[in-house]
Structure formats: C-alpha cells, structure tokens
Amino acid sequence: MKEFDFYIVPTPIGNLGDITLRAIEVLKSVDLIACEDSRVTQKLLNHFDIRTKCVSYHKYNEKERVNQIIETLKSGKKMALVSDAGTPLICDPGSVIVKELRDNGFSVTALPGANAIATFLSQVSREDETYTFIGFLPKTQAKIEEVALQYKFSDFVFYESPNRIIQTLEIIKNVRPECKVAFGRELTKVFEEVVVDKIDNVIEHLKTNVAKGEFVCLIYRDGEVSDLTQMEDKVKLLQDKGFGAKDISVILSELYGVNKNKIYKIVVGK
C-alpha cells in the first residue's frame, strides 16, 4: 500500500463500530494525530487500543499549527488529521493545512468513511440527485430567509444545532410556509430519528420532543421549476436582453440554485 505524508481520516459520527479497518491501521501507523479535541479523540483511540500521540488542531489555532506540522513532516514523520466526528474539512477544520501541504509538495490522501450528509440523504427520498449543501446557515433572520428563498427551486441541506433548530425552521416558514422538511438527528446512535413532513408538523414535533445532537436538515424544493411563472419571467427578461439558451441556463442556475437542465427546457419550450 502506498504511503503518504498526511492522511485525512474520518471518525464515526456516533456508533464507534462504523470506523473502518483502514482508519484504525492508519491511526496506529502514523507518528502523530492532529485532532480538534484531544479528550474526544482519546476516547476513540483508547477504544481501539491506538497509542499514537495527539496534537490539537482546531479552527482557532489552524494557522499557528501549520509551521509545526510542516516541520514534523519535513523530519520524515507521518501524520493524520481527524475531527471530533465525521470527515475533516466538511464543516470541520483542515482546509488551511491541506492547502499549505499541497503548496509545499507534501503528499495528502483522504480515507472514505463516516459522513452525516451521506448517512442522512441515503434515508430520505428525493426527486433527483441534485441538491446544495449549505453547511451551517447564517445566524441572522434576514440571511436565513435569503438562503431559503435563493434555493426555493432546489433541495438544500444544512447543519443546525439543537438549541437553534426550532427558531431556524420558524424563520424558514416565514418565507416558505408550505415547504416540506426532512431532518435527521442522533444518526447511527440508539435514539436515531429521521422525520419527513410539512414544516408546520416538523416544528410541532420538535416542540414536544427534546432536541438532542446536531441536526442535518433538508428543505425540499417548491414544486417543478417548469410550473413557476416567476422563473419563466426571468427567462423572458434575459431573452429580451439577447442572451442565448445556454447562457440563460447557466446564469439562472447560479443565481437561484436551480438545475440548469430544467431551466434550459423552459427556454427552448418558449
């Protein structure tokens, strides 16, 4: 098996049994593990009898750690990066060091493994494979409403904390009162819950069921794009400005998060 200087290693999002054999092998073989919280990571390492030392690497010290990690690798040692749960760089630290390592000629690889988005989406049906992952939503009401409207014509997925989930859904309801929502929490754990329902019903459900664990949420698109006169008006406006079908499809897809093939069908159908 080819050796690399630096390994991105996913860790379980809940059930420790979800770690891969290769992840255990890599964590045992490297000289140092960079982790978000050593207390969390140490529990995982102890469970699998992994004796490798850890060094903290989180969003508040990313830039400070870069030089130290580069010097460690220059000395011939191998390192791995883990987050507290799931895959590093997916709403977790790691982008800074990966960029620096690639810019400095070090070899970097990523192992496949646990990811909350894929785990959640594999349990809920969707019209097609197109969706937009937002990460964590903005904090202000105006910005959340802006995102909800921007992706009115496409599915979008986001993470949310248990203490904010009801407030966030109520804000989305202000501008998308009839939308359908799916959420997952405690994924892979004993009390895993996945719910798909109208936003009103989801909010009421959460009010009577104590929210625990980080949420993954999906806001479904509002119907077929081809049925929306609002999108047709935008197509006509761009046509009047002299834009061609392909350009219109790309522009509106980028602006509104709509599948460009669906827009193209609206254009050529006129």
What would you say this structure looks like, in words?
The protein is of the alpha/beta class and 270 residues long. The protein has three domains: 6-114, Cobalt-precorrin-4 Transmethylase, domain 1, CATH 3.40.1010.10; 117-219, Methyltransferase, Cobalt-precorrin-4 Transmethylase, Domain 2 (2-Layer Sandwich); 225-268. Helices cover 41% and strands 16% of the residues. It contains eleven helices and ten strands. Helix 7 (165-175) packs antiparallel against helix 8. It is globular, with a radius of gyration of 22 Å. The N and C termini lie far apart (56 Å).
What is the approximate shape? globular
Looking at the overall shape, the CATH architecture of the largest domain is: 3-Layer(aba) Sandwich
Q: Work out the radius of gyration.
A: 22 Å
Helix count from the secondary structure assignment: 11
Specify the helix fraction band: 40-55%
- pLDDT average, as an integer? 91
Based on helices, strands and strand pairing, what is the structural class?
alpha/beta
Number of domains: 3
List the uncertain runs: none
CATH first level of the largest domain: Alpha Beta
Corresponding CATH superfamily of the largest domain: Tetrapyrrole methylase, N-terminal domain
Strand content: 15-25%
